[in-house]
């Protein structure tokens, strides 16, 4: 048996723990280093990749329906096995309970769970409704539904969900069998040719899901991966289908792939599907079907009829997962982070440099640099002393800025043989019995940044109370303004409870070189760097070769320990927790569920094992942290950022894209990733701008800083081993950033209004073109996007170019688009990739005809921007009309008592503003700009009062009307009373 396999078996209590001696000299004194091999598990045969694996569809009998009972709301029935158990990847459950619930006119739920709890499924886990609520019924009935559920027993139980209005089959398990075992569930639905599916995250991939993919869901500490499972779990998809309409007969047929350009009349229908299941999952996208597999739980499917994307998304959020948190106004400003800010003075210098170059800055972030030996809730007093920090933060707050520190998910456990190695946070956790255990009741001890660690048990209410207390105690020393939760999958650098009997070695070094340590300098640069920086690129390549050679010499040619291959087997009636018989395609080594994560057999206070609840850990720490922040700031919206998320995490937190690279490819993937999180009800999304790992250069960072200026969450962050990449590091990036930031800060009122609409209605903030313009030719467009309904961004996503191609949706139907910078209408043809000039430092932005944007003046902070006069930018459509809206409140109250809603409307020769609400907005209106005014205005009045001709400008070539000098006419506030501007 290989040594690594022995270590793994020891970690799960099957062998005594054995470790090889290892140390590193990176610390002041020699320090034990966790062996790298301990990160890896056994290699298992991943069944999805193994052609010899049993096909459950071929060997399992399925079920037969009996005891059907109908009601006004649906039906219940019993499903009994239609033959001998197959026990393909677990023990078959012989009797199941089917419930079909027509919950609302546009929502249908189908639930299948074990009918009885017996010896074969005594440990069955269904998602706790207190953790993830089920979709709720609201006056639904069979007769009033948009959807129809039908079933058949031929040859075994299968069902279909049909759109009643059109007869289209939205979900069909016909000609397949339901496989329902204690560690394996499988069902399959047919799909039309060339289907358009979106969602099924969290992963980095193209927006429109491709065929022949294996989409794995198991929360993993894995950055920089494509098409693999990542940090979170969002088992929801949007399905959009396009139909060609015959003008004469009205007949319709589904649009086939590639023929969208030839179709003039079409209709689009979208529906959504959500599987409420927290177990490890796998979705296989075949050319004509979708296979869904889980390692346990239930079939709890909710169907949303739409028929538009907007209706599906709103329904999913309002009825099922909850509406997204309303963000503080300040959170929409610019955020700066870096793993590598060594002390308070360095952070102060960063703030001062932003001010020096007059670059907006709202939030400063601290990565794990500030921690005492990477321990949560303790500062390194040599570099981040509390008194100095309080002085820095007081000045930061006085300037209108904010501070957010990182908090990791694992907690250090002290060395019992070292009396000075105290950690009160751990002691209080033990006293509260707040940590996850081994099956034998001992503490489960993994390893993360500080060394051997323990993990809060969120299934215990004591853990949440303990966590909140630690947040409060630490804030008394470090007055932070928000919290950044990391490593929450939950991650561990070893397989199993590797710290058992090893605590005398704590603190230990992670099983790899930390970024920036000798031998771990990052020499990666973006595509195209060697072309524009030839000499520097050669020197970097030479340095990288020297680092690789030194590492090879130090290793002395030794190879990692060999790893045994494990073929999991089925023992009827017994769940194989650590090595389930079906192996999902987990991104970690060997597809092992325990690799870089808390092991599946770790046990919670309520008896649940990590196997069943792993994907919920990140969701639950966000809830606990959110509740703690509410206790610290009663009535104030928490600002919370989380890495691992689940369906519904948007109620509490924002999300960033995790570890990415300083590559143009990574920059591209942020767009589909952001659009996916719009579907998942987490609109406050943004990437590590300019890239987390690798080194940014002038070109990439210029392009990326401009792109991210139009993302909801705007933050620059990178790793210690790479060069600094604050926007002021390059003169060209300063100018590019300030240019894009000026637009962002001007439209903050629009962005804030979008967030309010998302928070109250479930609408999206960042949008795919196909959502606003359901056109089959736009179904896969993810290289440009909309910010709300009014702004379109067409970024450059490749190096060494000075132009970009973009489409202008709707122009064939009379849609008008205006260039943001020239304010002139764009001359574009339907369905044509238009070449747009985009020299370095310029990001193409376009405003949609028919829209009105409320704006304020840009400033270095949102606080300062909110004190400036107002402006309106109106873009008339082909009929000379436009509309818009504005929402205002105090910017931070959880439930503001004073709010203001302003409606704007333009019609050919006038623009009106009408406000309702009690929020007093004292800033005046400075000017109004109207694009698309076709003739010279003869007279301009504001509430029937003439506007001085010197304040009126008209550009006949651009057809733009500018009306200034309105401050005196609105001295009591831009929206204090209704007004009309005529021209």
From TrEMBL:
Domain Glycoside hydrolase family 31 N-terminal, first and last residues per copy: 142-242
CDD domains assigned? GH31_MGAM_SI_GAA, GH31_N
Q: Which InterPro entries match?
A: Gal_mutarotase_sf_dom (IPR011013), GH (IPR017853), Glyco_hydro_31_AS (IPR030458), Glyco_hydro_31_C (IPR048395), Glyco_hydro_31_N_dom (IPR025887), Glyco_hydro_31_TIM (IPR000322), Glyco_hydro_b (IPR013780)
Q: Quote the EC number.
A: 3.2.1.20
- Kindly list the GO molecular function terms attached to this UniProt entry: alpha-1,4-glucosidase activity; carbohydrate binding
Cite the Glycosyl hydrolase family 31 C-terminal domain residue spans from the record: 762-853
Instruction: Give the signal sequence positions.
Output: 1-20
Xref: SUPFAM superfamilies: (Trans)glycosidases, Galactose mutarotase-like, Glycosyl hydrolase domain
Q: Which GO terms describe its biological process?
A: carbohydrate metabolic process
> Where does the record place the Glycoside hydrolase family 31 TIM barrel domain?
324-754
**Keywords of the record:** Glycoprotein, Glycosidase, Hydrolase, Signal
Q: Which PROSITE patterns match?
A: GLYCOSYL_HYDROL_F31_1 (PS00129)
Catalytic activity, reaction form: Hydrolysis of terminal, non-reducing (1->4)-linked alpha-D-glucose residues with release of alpha-D-glucose
Matches recorded under Pfam families: Gal_mutarotas_2, Glyco_hydro_31_2nd, Glyco_hydro_31_3rd
Q: Which domain of life is it from?
A: Eukaryota
Q: Its family?
A: Belongs to the glycosyl hydrolase 31 family.
Function, as annotated:
Hydrolyzes malto-oligosaccharides, but has a low activity toward soluble starch.
Q: What is this protein called?
A: Alpha-glucosidase
Source organism per entry reads Penicillium rubens (strain ATCC 28089 / DSM 1075 / NRRL 1951 / Wisconsin 54-1255)
